[in-house]
Amino acid sequence: MKELEIPEKNYLLIKGAIQDDATQERIINETLKQFGRINTLVNNAGISQKSAADPNSIESLDAIYEINLRAVYNLTSKVVPHLLKTKGNVVNISSAGSQRGTDSFIPYAMLKAALDHYTRDLALKYAKEGVRVNAVNPGVVETNFIGRHGIPTEVIDQMRTVWAKKTIPMQRVAQPVEVANLVRFLASDEASYITGTTMAVDGGIWAGIPSEL
């Protein structure tokens, strides 16, 4: 935050396991204490697997469910009463993988698809009250998201180059700011008539694979 020259009064850092009730309560209470209200909830915490050994194991399924879906459901349920007061909104960070079949990260893709459905359900539930709910579905992004799960550096480098050129129409991975720009838009009043949608930031993955690739 200091590198971005954002004043300390404008942000709040809370460390903890997002799936724990105590952490969620701290997030809500300390946010209200510092800022007085909650306008937007961005559900961004997530994992893709429990370990590099087997991303499709039942252990991975349980771990991903706890963080990527249950924690989102639980925290959102606690924040909604505050969003009703501010006519706020929710932005769920899903994945381009939610709409495509995969044989490598099955639990991750399956639960992101469930998150997309939850986004639509919640949007319908609170539309009349003026609370909007949308999802952003990134493709591969230039972050350490995959690396922190023990995936070898050489494999990640290959994803950024060879794999990206073969499977992404724009032939490159996304930069974090390209995802953040859409999140910011959906959270703003400029998106006041948008709710219940899932928007991809994936370089064209959802469109398909061009024949020349």
From TrEMBL:
<dbReference type="InterPro" id="IPR036291">
    <property type="entry name" value="NAD(P)-bd_dom_sf"/>
</dbReference>
<protein>
    <submittedName>
        <fullName>SDR family oxidoreductase</fullName>
    </submittedName>
</protein>
<dbReference type="InterPro" id="IPR002347">
    <property type="entry name" value="SDR_fam"/>
</dbReference>
<dbReference type="Pfam" id="PF13561">
    <property type="entry name" value="adh_short_C2"/>
</dbReference>
